[in-house]
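Researcher: I'm preparing a figure for a lab meeting and need a structural model of a single chain. I don't have an experimental structure, so a prediction will have to do for now. The sequence is pasted below. Please return the structure as tokens so I can convert it later.
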Amino acid sequence: MFKVLYKKELSPGIFDMDIEAPRVAKKAKAGQFIVLRVNEEGERIPLTIADNDTETGAIKLIFQVVGASTMQLSAKEVGESIADFVGPLGQPSLVKPGMGTIVMVGGGIGVAPCYPIARAMHEAGNKVIGVLAAKTKDILIFEERMAKVCDEIVICTDDGSKGLKGFATGAIQMLHERGEKMDQVTAIGPSIMMRSIVEATRPLGIHTVVSLNPVMVDGTGMCGGCRVKVGEETKFACVDGPEFDGHLVDFDNLMSRSRMYRDQETVEKDHVCNIGLGR
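Model: Understood. Here is the structure written out token by token.
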């Protein structure tokens, strides 16, 4: 059993939770994820690791309540336990010195999994610019955390309540127009946001990494549910990813597959298939 060490509702329906999982915390690297079950009858929920603490053995998760399983998870209180917690899964982010200027773009709660990558990039000596995007300032998360590991923070809100008014693509355009040499852009968030970032960086020739969030069941590549088209190849997000070259990803296929079970999700209200939005 894996104990809840910390819990906070950041905004309505969005929770910050630390789970005691010392072996996972010891091995976790930036960009990886876990799969959990709240109880023995529950579904498997993949969530990207937002932080890990090797001293306390805690894994930090940021998730949004979108169905019965995440509702059950959000109902857990400090001191209570969940049944299963497996990880770290997936390939870690490529992080090394000398990568240049890295722009981390987080959309919504996709900001949370940007944090460990930004921190790792910063610790490796790279320049890191964080772009935090949300519909409104009230649902911006991890602003203080990101500020500590970024050389610069750019905030975008759809309604203009804080920072630039508009989408994250506006930040990319602003950085380009001021002459910022962007060596890599990493985008994490809703598929439509990641696709928009990819289309913004494509004509600029900026290497762009996206963290994909397709339907996922076992997290080991056995079910095949998370297959995605990357260039001319079929990849499995859980074992080959979750990060891929954004300019090679077939987003039409990705988004079409994500809608395959919409009717069942509406009926059951018990399906969480997003690493990205559940992260």
